[in-house]
Design a protein that fits this description.
alpha+beta, 464 residues, 18 strands, four-stranded antiparallel beta sheet, globular, 15 helices, homodimer, 22% strand
Chain lengths: 464, 464
C-alpha cells in the first residue's frame, strides 16, 4: 500500500515538481522594474515548456515602441490544435507574483521552494504560478494518455502583470487582430479558491474594484501642538473624521449615490451563496477575531458576495516613530479601495465617494486625489448554463459532495475583458484555501491542492 | 550715523557672535545617544564660559551609577555671588535641540550657523541656545559695566534634555541637597516668545501636557480587501472612528470627565490674554490657513490659553507607498497628546481619554496603550505680583508699548518642578517669534531678537 511519504517521494521525482520548482525560483515581481528580466525569463521558460507539449507559443508585447513598451512584461500566448470542430478553450493564468515584503516574516527564503509537511512554501506557490502550473501538468498528463492528441483546441494566455493592473495585456486587447486570435468557446481560469475542506467551487460572480488616494492638506507646515493647539486645524484628525464618515454606525456605507443601480441577487443565487460559504466559526478561526466587517444584519455570504465595500487600505499622517513628537500634522493621506457588485458603475462610485469627501472636507483643510487606479465592474455569471452543468458533473466525479457556487469577494479585472475579447463563457474553478496565505509571508500550496488542480484540468478538458 | 550693516559688522566681530556660533555648531541632540558626546562637549563649553565671567560652575549627573547614568546628558550648574542680602536669581535654559529632520528641507546645513538678512539660521539658533546665550551675553555686559560685581546672587542651571523629558534634571531634583542649592527668589526662564512685532511679553500661564500611543489590533494578519471585504474588521477604519470620536462637531472635546476640575480664568486674565494675542489675520498669515482649531465660539486667545486640547500627533495604519495595495490593515496606531489647563489632573485626563477609547473600541478589535509619556500640570502665575510689576516696568523702559501677558499654549514641564524645588517665583520672558520656525527646518533667530534678549538680561538683573 502506498503511504503518504511514497506519494510525496514519487511526486518529488516527477517532472511536475522539478518544473514547478524551476518556475517558482524566478522572482517574477511584475510590478517591480528591477525584476523585469526575471519576468522575461519566466515567460521564455513558459513558452519553451508549452513547446514540449506540442503547443506553438510566443511572447507578445504591444506594438508601438518606446521606453514604456520595452520595459513592459510580456504575455505568453500559445496554441495547440485539437480536432476539427472541437470546442476551443482559452486557458488564462498569471506568472507574476506579489512582492515578498515583509521579508523578515518569512520562515524560508521567499523564492526558494521548500516542501514541509506536504506543502510547498514559496512566493507564488499558489497565486498564481502554482494554480497555473498544476493545470498545465494536467494538460500534459491528458495529452500523454492520448498520444499527444488534444481533445479540444487549446489556447494559452499567461500574463506577468495581473498583480499590478495587467498593463501589457490590456494594451494587447486594444488590437483587433489579437482579440481575434483569442476567440474561444470557454475561458478557463485557474486563479480562484475552493470552498472549506477543499470542496470544489465554481465562481458565479466576482466583485468589481476601484481605488484612489486621498490627500488632506491643512497648515503650511507641521506645527507645535502647544503653541498652535486650539488654533491650527489638524490634518490627522481631519482624515480620521473623513474616513469615519464613510460608514454608518451599523457598518453600512454612508456615501450618497454609492449604491445606485445595484442589481440584487436572485433567490437562487443567494441560496447557493449561503450553501457554499464558510461558517462564522471557520471565519473566526481564519482571521483570529470576529468576522464583523460590513453591514449589521446581513450574513457573511451576503456581505462578501453581494454587497459593495469601501475599505481603508492605509491611513498615514504625522509622527509614527518611537516615543512622542507633539506636532499638529499639516497633511494626511488615506488609501481607499471599493469593491463593487453588479449594476454599480466603477466611475460613478469613485465620483460619489470623492464628492462625499469634498462635501465633508473639514474647515481650514483642502482635499485632493493625487492617485487614481483600476476601474473594473463586477462579473455575474448565469447559474443555469450548460457550461456550469458540465463543470458540476466533472467536479461531482472528483468529489461526491459536488461543487458549491461562490460569489467571490475579490476581483479579477481581466476576466471581464477576456470574456468580451474572446466571446468565451468564463469558467473559474480553483483550489485556493485561506491557509495558503497568498499576498502574505509564507505563502504555500499543498501537494493535495496541486493534485486536485491537475486532475481538474485533465477531466474538464476531456469532458468538452 | 551707524547703519544696519555697521551694526551687523560690529556684532560679527564681537565675542557675543563668535561664542554663539561656537555653541550652535555643536549638534546637541539630547534625545539621540549618538550625540551624547556633543552634549557633554557643549556642557563643558558652557561651564568654561561661566568661568570666564567669574562664576563657579560644574557638570552634574545623578548619583547612583550604571549604564543609564553614564549615558545621560549632564546638567550645568553655576553660581556667582552678589552682595550680602541681595536677591537670588536662578537662570534656567537648555542647550539641547530638536533633531534637524527632515534634512532635505534645510537651505543651509542645520549645524552651520549662517547669517542672512539679519537672521542666524541654525538648529537651536533660537530654541534654546540662542535665547539662553543672548541672556548670558547680557549678564557678561552687565558685569563688565560693574567691574565684575554682580548686583544679585546668580545661579545658572542649563540642561541638555528639555526636548526629551528632562531626565537628568528630574533625577537630580530627587536629591534634597541639590534642591537646597537651587534655593532662589526668582526663577528666570528664557525659552518663550514675545508678542506680535516683538512687543515684550510676560508669560502668565503655561498649559500642562500628557501623551500616549494607542494601538488598535484587529485580525491576525493584513487581509486581502476582496477576499475579506465585508467580513474582517478594518483597523485603519477603526482608528479613524476612535480618533473622530474624541471631538464633537463643534470642535469641543467629547471625552467624559476630561474637563473635570478646570479652574476658569478670571476676567482680568481673560482681558489681558485677549490684549496680548495675535489677531486672526496674523494667525492666518502664519499658518497659511484658517486658524479654526479648537471649539467654535471661543476666541483664539481662549482656545490656546485657557482651553485644553486633544491633538492627534500621528496616525498610521496599512499601506502608505505609491499606488495601491488592497489590504485590510490588521493594526493601527495613533499618537495623542493633550494640553491641559489649571485644575486638570494630568493622570486623570490620560485615564479619561483611555477609558473613552476602550469604551468605544470597535467590535472585533482590541485597544491597548503601548507607550505613555510626560505628565505635567498647567502653571498659573498670579497677575498681581510685585515681580510682574517690576518686570512690567523694565519692559516698558525697553519698549514704550509695555509688555503683554501671555498664556502660552505650550508646556515647559520643568518650570513647575523648578518652582517647587527652588521656592522661586517664575518669570518667563523671551523673544521668540513664529517666523523663527523652532522644531522645524531652517530655524532662525534675528540679531534684533538677540539684542533684545541681551538687553533684557542686563536690565532685569540690575533692577532687582
Amino acid at each position: 500500500m502506498a503511504t503518504m511519504n511514497d506519494e510525496t517521494d514519487a511526486w518529488l521525482k516527477s517532472s511536475d515538481s522539478s518544473d514547478y520548482f524551476a518556475l517558482l525560483k524566478m522572482p517574477t515581481i511584475g510590478a517591480d522594474p528591477l525584476h523585469l528580466r526575471d519576468c522575461v525569463q519566466a515567460a521564455t521558460w513558459l513558452k519553451k515548456w508549452l513547446g514540449t507539449i506540442g503547443a506553438e507559443a510566443e511572447l507578445l508585447l504591444p506594438s508601438g515602441g518606446g521606453a514604456a513598451v520595452s520595459a513592459s512584461v510580456p504575455v505568453v500566448f500559445g496554441e495547440l490544435k485539437g480536432g476539427e470542430g472541437a470546442t476551443t478553450v482559452l486557458v488564462y493564468g498569471h506568472y507574476d507574483v506579489q512582492p515578498p515584503d515583509p521579508l523578515e516574516a518569512w520562515q524560508t527564503p521567499p523564492f526558494e521552494p521548500t516542501l514541509k509537511d506536504g506543502r510547498v512554501y514559496c512566493r507564488g506557490a499558489q497565486d498564481d504560478k502554482g494554480q497555473l502550473f498544476a493545470f498545465l501538468c494536467g494538460v500534459r498528463a491528458l495529452l500523454a494518455a492520448r498520444e499527444g492528441r488534444a481533445p479540444v483546441n487549446l489556447k494559452f494566455l499567461f500574463e506577468g502583470q495581473e498583480e499590478s493592473g495587467s498593463g501589457t495585456l490590456f494594451r494587447l486587447l486594444d488590437d483587433a487582430g489579437f482579440r481575434k486570435r483569442l476567440a474561444a468557446d470557454v475561458l478557463l481560469v485557474s486563479d480562484t479558491g475552493a470552498a472549506a475542506d477543499l470542496r470544489p467551487a465554481i465562481v458565479a460572480g466576482l466583485r468589481g474594484v476601484c481605488h484612489f488616494t486621498v490627500r488632506l492638506a491643512a497648515a503650511n507646515r507641521d506645527l507645535h501642538s502647544g503653541e498652535y493647539g486650539g488654533l491650527a486645524p489638524n490634518a490627522a484628525q481631519g482624515v480620521a473624521e473623513l474616513v469615519a464618515s464613510l460608514h454608518n454606525p451599523d457598518g453600512s456605507i454612508a456615501v450618497p449615490g454609492f449604491r445606485d443601480g445595484i442589481e440584487p441577487p436572485t433567490y437562487a443565487e443567494q441560496a447557493a451563496a449561503e450553501a457554499g460559504f464558510a461558517t462564522e466559526e471557520q471565519l473566526r478561526a481564519d482571521i483570529g477575531t470576529e468576522p464583523c466587517g460590513g453591514q449589521l444584519g446581513k450574513t457573511p455570504a451576503q456581505r462578501n458576495g453581494f454587497e459593495p465595500t469601501i475599505e481603508v487600505n492605509g491611513i498615514h499622517s504625522g509622527y509614527g516613530g518611537p516615543g512622542s513628537k507633539t506636532v499638529i500634522p499639516c497633511e494626511a493621506f488615506a488609501k481607499l479601495s471599493m469593491r463593487l457588485v453588479p449594476g454599480q458603475s466603477p466611475a460613478a462610485c469613485c465620483d460619489a465617494v470623492k464628492r462625499h469627501l469634498k462635501d465633508r472636507c473639514p474647515k481650514g483643510m483642502a482635499v485632493s486625489f493625487p492617485e487614481d487606479g483600476g476601474l473594473s465592474a463586477a462579473l455575474r455569471l448565469p447559474l443555469a448554463s450548460p457550461l456550469f452543468r458540465l463543470a458540476e458533473d466533472v467536479l461531482t466525479e472528483m468529489d461526491p459532495r459536488g461543487p458549491v457556487f461562490l460569489w467571490d469577494g475579490a476581483s479579477i479585472p481581466v476576466v471581464s475583458a477576456l470574456k468580451a475579447a474572446s466571446g468565451a463563457a468564463p469558467l473559474l474553478v480553483g483550489w485556493g484555501q485561506p491557509e495558503d496565505r497568498i499576498h502574505a509571508p509564507n505563502e504555500s500550496y499543498s501537494l493535495r491542492q496541486f493534485a486536485l488542480a491537475k486532475d481538474w484540468a485533465r477531466r474538464i478538458l476531456a469532458a468538452f
